[in-house]
Design a protein that fits this description.
- This protein has about 400 residues and is mainly beta.
- About 15% of the residues lie in helices and about 45% in strands.
- The chain has four helices and 19 strands.
- The strands form two sheets. Strands 1-2-3-5-6-7-8-9-10-13-14-15-16-17-18-19 form a 16-stranded antiparallel barrel.
- Helix 3 packs antiparallel against helix 4.
- The N terminus is likely disordered.
Length: about 400
């Protein structure tokens, strides 16, 4: 671009010299304006490569090069999409082995303006809050397409952002593990996030039900802070958090949220309602021992239940599957008691989803190319719910082929 700008000035100057009469002064004035603008833009490019052209510059350029302006405006909108094919085998004690093939497809548009960022995304799947997978079958029936995200990010200043809508979860998941939050869960509400130096903070509320017509109106309030520290050659992320969901006496917020999912519900009056509130405190740590060896620990406790109210996960990751040919391996042990957290929002894969699961999970990842990743997951767990008198063995094998395009 820098090579073409002097050429444009030269051509414009030549045109000015060739013109005659009263047009010369007008053309000279226009060329002077163009020259000043080009010098300003060249300086900006030299200072910050890749920075967006300010609105005032775009306005001036509109009169001179509409095609360039249209291209600059379109570059503010980016499209991202991914597709995943999955083979899954489930062995649950007392049931026949289950095998199925599934897919997940997602696409998102992101607009980055001068005053806000907007995200709009669609995903395959039904109405589950924690899964966008679709099981293949049904004679080739059409599969569901749902609103996955629709939110804005509005910066109050250089450090503080407001997020509003149905959004990607701004709360940190240590080790990218779903002890409390499934990776597909999209909170619907308002959050405030800030990052100052080594400290990060997220605070906000999101709705489980916002319509008072349903007589089940309920919001969740969350606060989480994380501090980034350096201890010798080890990078540490240390965090504390708290969230509050006062669900006692409320009906389930989704049809799949039954007593089988893990939390106890009283159904003695003909309508099942939660018996506990969930005031959950959390503490976590992540340690990057080397560029390819990372460990994490996450602990939670629900202060509103007297028993079966804690959960934790310990994990180790070796390698990073970022570039073609890279491998990564993760091993984790999780124990999540039934009343430790809201069962509806936890990892939908571990021990069948929800709370009441304990056991190990191993994941092997291989980056086959820049756009193709292969992941193999195996979990060996026990599942305890209020509907089963004894813990049941629950084994799961998952093979994923994930593509970005």
């Amino acid at each position: 671009m820098r090579r073409t700008l002097p050429l444009a000035l030269a051509l414009a100057s030549a045109h000015t010299i060739a013109a005659g009469g009263s047009d010369v002064d007008a053309l000279k004035s226009e060329v002077d304006q163009l020259k000043a603008l080009v010098m300003k833009l060249e300086q900006r490019l030299a200072d910050v490569e890749g920075q967006k052209v300010p609105v005032e510059d775009l306005t001036a350029l509109t009169k001179l090069n509409p095609v360039a302006i249209k291209s600059a405006q379109e570059s503010r909108v980016t499209l991202a999409s991914d597709f995943r094919l999955r083979y899954e085998s489930i062995e649950k004690q007392g049931s026949d082995r289950r095998e199925r093939e599934r897919l997940r497809a997602r696409a998102s548009l992101t607009y980055k303006g001068d005053d806000f960022t907007g995200v709009f995304a669609l995903a395959s799947g039904g109405d589950s809050p924690t899964s966008t997978n679709q099981t293949l079958g049904g004679g080739g029936t059409s599969k569901g397409l749902q609103l996955d995200m629709a939110y804005v990010i509005y910066p109050l200043n250089d450090q503080v952002n407001v997020l509003a809508g149905k959004m990607k979860n701004p709360l940190h998941r240590p080790g990218k593990y779903g002890l409390v939050w499934d990776s597909d869960y999209r909170p619907e509400g308002v959050f405030l996030t800030t990052e100052t130096g080594n400290f990060e903070l997220a605070a906000g509320s999101f709705w489980l039900e916002s319509d008072s017509k349903n007589r089940n109106e309920r919001a969740v309030y969350a606060l989480q802070g994380m501090y980034n520290a350096q201890l010798g050659g080890t990078t540490l992320n240390l965090g504390l958090g708290y969230f509050e969901a006062n669900l006692s006496g409320d009906k389930a917020f989704w049809s799949g949220d039954t007593i089988k999912l893990g939390n106890y519900q009283d159904c003695s009056n003909g309508s099942c309602v939660f018996t506990h509130d969930y005031h959950v405190i959390e503490a976590f740590a992540e340690a990057n021992f080397t560029s390819s060896v990372n460990g994490f620990a996450h602990w939670i406790e629900n202060t509103q239940a007297n028993s079966d109210n804690t959960g934790y996960v310990l994990g180790l990751t070796i390698g990073k599957a970022k570039n073609a040919g890279d491998w990564a391996f993760q091993a984790a042990w999780q124990n999540l008691e039934n009343e430790a957290t809201v069962a509806l929002l936890t990892d939908s894969d571990f021990a069948g989803g929800g709370t009441g699961g304990e056991g190990s999970q191993l994941t092997l990842s291989y980056k086959a190319s820049s756009s193709l990743a292969i992941n193999l997951l195996y979990s060996d767990t026990e599942r305890t719910t209020y509907t089963d008198p004894n813990p049941l063995d629950y084994k799961r094998l998952v093979l994923d082929f994930s593509m970005k395009y």
